[in-house]
Write a structure and sequence with these properties.
single chain; 316 residues; mainly alpha; 0% strand
């Protein structure tokens, strides 16, 4: 297992290089000039030329990219052109906000979708199954920005129960978490239903029922445990996606997260900030997916045995 972890971590190197290269080149090809935003309105041509030289814009793009990568190898992700702050510090200051939103959204999704998926699978073909699938389809079809605005109108403007924007208290987290979690719920409900249908009629469940095991224990202790692999995959993927920044939701609710930081940086052509945030986002997502892969061995003993078998072969 250790070799597998090391191998996955080493695979991050070409991924980071490829992502950073694409982001750096694309944002440099985008229309607009960052120097015109940094320079004073009455700046002369000479002053603009000095600023270009200071920020390295007098050199070819590929040269500036290699210079940036040299700094990254030393642990320097660059400094923002707009704020003058180190990219890493700006990202880490926003990451707890995004982490709070991601975990709250996943909690909303899991609490709603897994029971719905189980009910839909156990009651396949009944009205309960049909209602559950309709609810999942509605959740999948509603755009986040539309649902977010609807929640703001209902709970903030009309009823005055919750704040409509900002960050600071638990109440500020509720509406963004419901907005993101609703979209995640639809996919996880369908995945849970599909995974449960694969195991709910297996022979070992009939044996458990014949031994007098209660239906609740059959479903939750036996069937659900063997259906967890696809569910963990979806939850892990959704968590990784949320940690990358829920861009639309953070914008609608003025949530100071990573997604909004990247959007503001793209709009202002802050190349170091965009590139550094995308690199850190890539690393974060890759680590989350690695943890998900390792959880497979915890849930399924057969996968753990495969890891052990590979280790014995390598030692032999």
């Amino acid at each position: 297992m250790y070799r597998y972890v090391i191998k996955r971590l080493l695979m991050l190197i070409p991924v980071v290089i490829g992502v950073s290269f694409l982001v750096f080149m694309v944002i440099n090809l985008a229309p607009g000039d960052i120097i015109s935003q940094i320079a004073p309105e009455d700046a002369t041509v000479e002053e603009l030329a000095e600023l270009r030289a200071e920020y390295g814009f007098d050199k070819p793009t590929i040269v500036r990219y290699f210079n940036y990568m040299k700094g990254m190898l030393r642990g320097d992700l660059g400094t923002s052109y707009i704020t003058g702050e180190p990219v890493f510090e700006s990202y880490m200051r926003r990451l707890p906000n995004t982490l709070a939103l991601a975990l709250a959204s996943i909690f909303v999704s899991v609490v709603i979708s897994i029971p719905l998926g189980i009910i839909s699978a156990v009651k396949q073909g009944t009205w309960k199954d049909n209602v559950t699938m309709v609810v999942a389809l509605l959740g999948l079809s509603m755009p986040n920005f539309w649902l977010g605005l609807l929640l703001i109108i209902l709970f903030a403007l009309n009823w005055g129960l919750l704040p409509s924007y900002g960050y600071g208290t638990f109440k500020h987290l509720i509406l963004p978490a419901i907005t993101v979690g609703t979209g995640l719920t639809a996919m996880l409900t369908r995945t849970t239903r599909s995974s449960m249908l694969d195991v709910v009629r297996q022979d070992y469940l009939r044996t458990a029922r014949a031994k007098g095991v209660s239906e609740r224990d059959v479903i939750y202790k036996h069937a659900l445990k063997n259906a967890l692999i696809p569910i963990i995959t979806v939850v892990g993927t959704q968590l990784a996606s949320c940690l990358g920044g829920a861009l639309i939701t953070e914008t609608v609710f003025a949530w100071p997260g990573v997604g909004r930081l990247i959007l503001d940086s793209v709009n202002s052509r802050d190349i170091p900030m965009v590139t550094g945030c995308i690199i850190l986002k890539t690393i974060t997502i890759s680590i989350i997916l690695l943890i998900v892969d390792l959880l497979y061995a915890v849930v399924d003993p057969r996968i753990k045995a495969q890891y052990a078998g590979r280790r014995k072969k390598s030692n032999g």
